[in-house]
Amino acid sequence: MNPPPRHIPSADLLVRKLQRFGPLSESERNQIRSLPSRVQEFGRGQVIIDQGEVTDESSLVLSGITFRYKLLPEGARQIVATQVPGDFVDLHSFVLKPLDHAIAAASHVYIAKVPHAAIQSMLDQQPRLARYLMWDMALDAASSREWLAALGKRTAYQQIAHLFCELYFRLDWAGYVKNASYEMPFTQAELADACGLSTVHVNRSLQSLRRDRLIMLENHALFIPDIGALIRAALFDPTYLHLQREDAVVS
Amino acid sequence: MNPPPRHIPSADLLVRKLQRFGPLSESERNQIRSLPSRVQEFGRGQVIIDQGEVTDESSLVLSGITFRYKLLPEGARQIVATQVPGDFVDLHSFVLKPLDHAIAAASHVYIAKVPHAAIQSMLDQQPRLARYLMWDMALDAASSREWLAALGKRTAYQQIAHLFCELYFRLDWAGYVKNASYEMPFTQAELADACGLSTVHVNRSLQSLRRDRLIMLENHALFIPDIGALIRAALFDPTYLHLQREDAVVS
DNA sequence: CGTCATATTGACTTTAGTCAATAGAAGTGG
DNA sequence: CCACTTCTATTGACTAAAGTCAATATGACG
Fold first, then answer.
1. What Å distances lie between residue B205 and A107, B80, B160, CA to CA?
2. Percentage of chain B modeled with pLDDT above 90
3. Nearest to residue B32, comparing CAs of B100, B126, B102?
4. Set of chain A residues whose Cβ sits within 8 Å of the Cβ of B73
5. What's the whole-model pTM score?
6. Which of A64, A193, A216, B212 could crosslink A223 through cysteines, CB 3.0-4.6 Å?
7. What confidence score (pLDDT) does residue B12 get?
8. Sign (positive/negative) of CA torsion A29, A30, A31, A35?
9. Strand C lies under 7 A from the Cβ of residue A149
């Protein structure tokens, strides 16, 4: 994941994403582009927002990968979502406080913090954009549901494959997949916390995936020789990611 | 769960719930109350909406309990959320189609179907209400995250206890808990599909919960002699349900 | 060169799943 | 009202998936 946040103007990332939901007028695009934000940088492993925090801004990922996680009373950590460039990590904090989870950087990341007041005044100017934000929140929720099905009904092997498929499609859409490869920043301990497994079992499942020639993974570089095969192994269906324009789906 | 949808005027349920987020003006309340809807009745086990359906209305539970579930390719079913009176089962279908899950009735239910066009025109009239709907969607998402932590990090015993705690608080708020008891409509097979377990293991875990005197359950009547004890056993924290007024939480 | 995080391996334990049988309960049609 | 089917709940015996503990690599880094 390349560090410089220059090559993709931050707000354009968001415009491009929201256009998946439907066409935006020129003034709506401008409204989004003119959202004020301050850019922050975090190193891998750093906590971006803490559980229980009450914040008055939402964070947008400009580059790198972040993840949401919950800490249980006895110290266990469950990762509940990942974010790639263009994703809000906590759009819901606009309406729901305090935050019921924390956010951390899985790789070196640049984050744009957008004040809630700015989001509110954007909606005051362009009420129609509320539907776009709702759509973004709904996407997020759809992903949670898919993860629930993964945790509840898939084997360790399938779950890890599923996570790799999801990241593949989302990163590909954001332009971060090259030659069927992408940088998969998670450690085995993080994969374990995302899939509800132990690190030992993740390690063994990864070896099975390698043995079956579904993945090649070293130094966080993940190569997927046959994405179709991985999809089948994971029981993956990319529909829930809604990567096509909604218009296109309906027509 | 009492059948008659009379005693609680349908829209008032929604007004009361949305007021948890913040105060509503008289005109906003009226706007919500005047939402058109057609009431439908479903028997227990009936499918209310099918996976993959494209619908132009969202369904609000008037009485009874419903649940969302996903069907995996090989036929497995994962229940991903439950709804009690006052909850939308698919508010997100307002912006996200097709539906990535199905909805079924866990008990005999009355449902109000509200056209998306009516929701849209309500938002056109009262743009401020968009934040209320976002809040409702955010609540739903918070619940999904909590379930993810349950599936990933809790034992079977804790998970079932957690589900019972969640239903306890939500039903209590809606006025359906009497004498520390409520009607828990799920069969053991449904509990299994909600917790990612086998029916046999659910059965044994229920017996453990009974043996530990945390619950009494027969004929779908669940009595919780000591909710504090159940909460501790479940590692339950009701914060994510946001049952207090948001104002109150902040102050 | 030593330290710390991450990855790997082996041996063993635990949790939960599977299969199969039985027992209740509830609903249905005659 | 009863025989019959069909869910639902329960139990036992066995299996399999995943966790735990512990040791050992491996590798990045200061």
1. 40, 20, 8
2. 90
3. B126
4. 235, 237
5. 0.94
6. A216
7. 85
8. positive
9. no
